[in-house]
Write a structure and sequence with these properties.
eleven-stranded antiparallel sheet, 11 strands, mainly beta, about 190 residues
Length: about 190
């Protein structure tokens, strides 16, 4: 069977953290839903989040296959044949997969638009005098435990920049701890 939701609204508020997220124009199409077998999912929505007093708006579109793996949360997955995320006038397009509920493993590949000073101001609330050319990013990562994020492989090809990295981020009440190894090839700093 086919399940369809059109024009829905979902609002999530975290009053302790002072954050809220609102999903509008939620459209969802699920074809042949089954808890034991993979099924097709097509979704889109507009999102408005308030994080640290800043309002960030974005849009998401997704064409994917999902499996609940007979409620075996470690084997459940969503594999996006394609996704598009638009925010700040820029669109990120790609494909990817997330395995586990909560997510344990993820793999993404995306084409990124060029980013400049005004983009950094919009995204982070502060200007950075740095330009990043359009490129292709690939990420393979895992979350072995809550608050721990391990990057097994990050590859960025944004000519003239070619970068590869791996590392880990651990979140704690004292703040994040970051450990990383990064290799950069053929990047002329004069063009940054």
């Amino acid at each position: 069977g086919l399940t369809v939701i059109e024009g829905g609204v979902v609002k999530v508020e975290d009053r302790l953290k002072g954050a809220s997220t609102r999903f509008e124009k939620v459209n969802l199409e699920v074809n042949r839903f089954d808890v034991d077998r993979p099924f097709a999912v097509i979704a889109s929505c507009d999102n408005t989040s308030v994080i640290g007093g800043r309002t960030i708006s974005s849009s998401l579109a997704l064409d994917a296959v999902m499996s609940l793996a007979s409620f075996d949360r470690s084997k459940a997955y969503i594999r996006a044949k394609r996704f598009a995320i638009t925010s700040g006038g820029n669109t990120l397009r790609g494909s990817g997969a997330v395995t586990g509920l909560p997510p344990r493993q993820m793999e993404f590949e995306a084409a990124t638009p060029p980013l400049g000073t005004a983009d950094w101001q919009w995204y982070f609330g502060k200007p950075l005098d740095f330009r990043l050319p359009a490129g292709r990013w690939r990420l393979r990562a895992e979350m072995p435990d809550p608050g721990k994020f391990r990057v097994k492989m990050l590859k960025v090809d944004a000519p003239p920049l070619s970068l590869s990295a791996f590392g880990a981020v651990e979140l704690s009440s004292a703040g994040p701890t970051v450990k990383a190894e990064v290799a950069v090839a053929n990047f002329p700093l004069s063009k940054a």
